[in-house]
User: What shape does this take?
Amino acid sequence: MTTETILPPETARESIGRRFGAVGGNMRQYGIFGALIAIVILFQVLTQGKLLQSNNVAALFQQNAYVMILAIGMVMVIVAGHIDLSVGSVVAFVGGIVALAMRDLHLDWPVAILVGLAVGVLVGMWQGFWVAYVGIPAFIVTLAGMLLFRGLAIVLVGETVAGLPQGFIRIANGYLPNFLGFADRADVVTLAIGGIAIVAMLLSQLRARASLRKHELQTEAIGLFVAKLVIIAASIAALALVLSLSAGGTPIVLIIIGVLVVAYSFVMGRTVFGRHIYAIGGNRLAAGLSGVNTKRVDFWIFVHMGILASIAAIITTSRAGAGVAAAGNMYELDAIAACFIGGAAVTGGIGRISGAIVGALIMGVLNMGLSIMTVDSAWQQAIKGLVLLAAVAFDLVNKRRAGGR
Amino acid sequence: MEHGHILEMRDITKRFPGVVALDDVTLSVRRGEVHAICGENGAGKSTLMKVLSGVYPHGTYEGEILFEDETASFRHIRDSEERGIVIIHQELALSPFLSIAENIFLGNEQASRGVVNWHKTNSEAAKLLARVGLSEAPDTKVADIGVGKQQLVEIAKALSKRVKLLILDEPTAALNDEDSEHLLDLIRSLQGQGITSIIISHKLGEIEAIADTTTVIRDGRTIETLDMREGKVSQEHIIRAMVGRPLENRFPPHTPQIGEEVLRIEDWTVHHPIDQERKVVDGVSLNVRRGEIVGLAGLMGAGRTELAMSVFGRSYGTRISGKVFKDGKRVELKTVGHAIRHGIAYATEDRKRYGLNLIESIRRNISGAALHKLARGGVVDHNAETKVAEEYRKELGIKTPDVEALVGKLSGGNQQKVVLSKWIYADPDVLILDEPTRGIDVGAKYEIYQTINRIADSGKGVIVISSELPELIGLCDRIYAISEGRLTGEVARENASQEHLMHYMTDTISKDGATR
Ligand SMILES: Nc1ncnc2c1ncn2[C@@H]1O[C@H](COP(=O)(O)OP(=O)(O)OP(=O)(O)O)[C@@H](O)[C@H]1O
Ligand SMILES: [Mg+2]
Assistant: This one.
């Protein structure tokens, strides 16, 4: 007979557990990041170094900005257990309106952009209303939206609305102005932005760690922490250096993407609204019984998706230099694929913006690499399909292993 | 009884990332006996049974299993079922929209060349149902029968597989006394037919009544194997082995300090959400005062949960009428949000469905109902949140390496503690606890009772719904009895006895036939 207490401290076992837990939790996150790096290296070799040429890197962001922006919203939608099939059509619809506002209504391009964002909000409210307050599954509502907005886009635009102002076209095709000159051949503005990003990243990470310390909470092992910081800082530095050598420096869209990623990561990770999205996706009934206003959360998710779709529309239209009725075709599938490659769960409740962005980059690098290698576009599509399947299968196997099965 | 062991599990060790769930466990079960396994929440009972039945395949654990003197290395549940080992899990695994007969033969369809023979299915099912004493028609949908009967369907399903060793993981946790009694009788009669059973339970009275042998597990280790037949093994003995120290009382002593009325419900009537003519709650009036613990007694299906959920922001039912007064003022609680803002909280009995987000961490679940307390300007303070979660982990003794662990990986009892933590942290004026100790071990129960007392002493009203009468009598200052949606009695603690309450709970005289 023993006389131990009810809760033996078992400190040794616990601390081992914690260390395992910490590494295990981050592994998956590192996993897709590793996959991205592997794919970059692979294509760097296959294209004989052309992939990472400065101008190609800048183009990578300009060509894939729309996926990343749509994927940010799509993660929110998917985490909440919904799906949005309409974003491609919304891109065409809002893009058409923005183009018409400039060409026919002669609005200044900044005003036209505001009009576009407002229309995005309305589209989001429209779909959010049907999903949240009428209770029609998002699959149906957005399938209807896909047809509806594509139809409206064609009605409004016909085929194309061209002749847009230069200022507008610069958004997706232009670069930050080089007002600091060149150091050697490198654009100093780009280097400065890279430097600021690194410092901001370091400060926020150090502050988070200090705060954990202050509250006497578990922190990552110092070695791992430093390694993480070094890798991130080096990646940012490398990116800044490569871009600074490109023809234009920093693409304007990169700044837009950066701001959106930081803002929405904060929303998803730190705010009550973000928490409620995860809570609803994990168990809608339990969230409702915990006082989460599930309808309101659903509604606002679609409003956010609408805004992000309209930003994607503006960029797409700017890049094409015209409003195009057929624009945005299949964009919804690109965004959805990016989310799932990035580790979002089909059943909801799981998914991160950083993951979706990495997912979008994986697809973008594939696109670019295969294009440089002049692989036929039909084959490109087939390969992307297989990559999606492989990424999700890999994740599943990983999870099963982590689950101890 | 035949001699020899039907099952020997030797030196079983099972690790999960970060947790050693089983640490050199040994279990020997004699042929034909009823073998009970006892232990605290998270001790490893369910895990041991999952190892045995092949849920965790051979190779993912260390140690050796001998079944009927042969080494068993099951890679899948199918393998163990082939050998006659059937497990009925803590959470029932029936498909609600299939019929009883379809469920019984699920995965084992009565078919020839892929075509199901429905006559055979139903007639075989009827035979099995007779064996477990269930009179329902085999084509009844599982969703339409109560939990007690679903449990019997699970056993019928096990019998259809020619079971030799039947494993029941907390089979009576969700059953009332009558259904539990029936189930125990059934296990005894199966024993008469030569079927060996392993039963996991936190209800020691039950174990005393039915077990021939009891193995106690603590912290993933075998502590003791007790022969229950020769001489009397007291419940105290089992408890001591389980928690590692003697437990003097089942209920902490408590002197209530009762104040003003905090909640009053008047003439509360609720109709069934689908069958809208049926009254599920019928004209119930009751009140709770600050510092008071009020019990709601009733049989399964009496309408206690429905009453509580309909008051809690109309989470259940349609055509709800009646008045709610909070601190003497009339309030309308139209949504869960309203109810929470008015200081009313309801901790569900069905934690997996209504209580928890299983794919989230303990931390995020605990803060789930009161996130606003941790947020400024809509931004959540992570570190404060972690501290809160840590506090509750310690206070309620949630067994986990840390609060970042996913709730879905906790043992059943520890999940229950997370649900409680969540609502205690929400700091309501009135806390409605629906079966707060379901699936919780004796030691932890005592701690939960202490917690409930402390909540009451801080000037809050507590309503406890429980199917365990001794719990209501030991814990509550006043107990209401409900029968078929109506209030049939009110008893002060001094006068409460099981007979007394049972009398009210089965009282149907006062009702007028129309409510059913
Ligand atoms: N899939 C899993 N992953 C990680 N840990 C797990 C997993 N399953 C169980 N555990 C852990 O193993 C331990 C034993 O759990 P188990 O479910 O066997 O407890 P139990 O004795 O059945 O408790 P209860 O009485 O509460 O049901 C617990 O600490 C639990 O958190
Ligand atoms: Mg268990």
